[in-house]
Amino acid sequence: MIIIYTDGSSRGNPGPGGYGTVLKYKEHRKELSEGFRKTTNNRMELLAVIMGLEAINVANAPVTVYSDSKYVIDSVEKGWLWGWIKKGFKGKKNKDLWLRFAEVYKKHRVTFQWVKGHAGIPENERCDELAVEAALGNDLKADTEFENGINDF
Q1: Structural domains in the chain (count)
Q2: Model pTM greater than 0.85?
């Protein structure tokens, strides 16, 4: 079982943002983070999950994703995402990231576990630190789709 903890941050919504991801498998551990100059909290929460799943090098892996994002978890677990895809994301945001998520999600056996944010869960706290640090960093990347309004359908 591969364990992924994720968190996203936005300093203003929209504003500078970042994601933090911690992957764990047996004795192995990997941390991922990146910052963007203008984005949203929801985009960073979703990107944290995507980056964690994309970092897995083996197909059909059993994965548990721990996240404090009801936006991400409910969209998948309640089946909303699959309806959005069928309807071409009419009236929904973040199409670019949701399509990217759907592709990598299909490659693994993913389950989600909601965790309360800022509740002292060490790996979740670490993801928050990584996300905030990335959002406050220098030389932030462009979230091109967001900045160009491509995700607003």
Answers
A1: 1
A2: yes
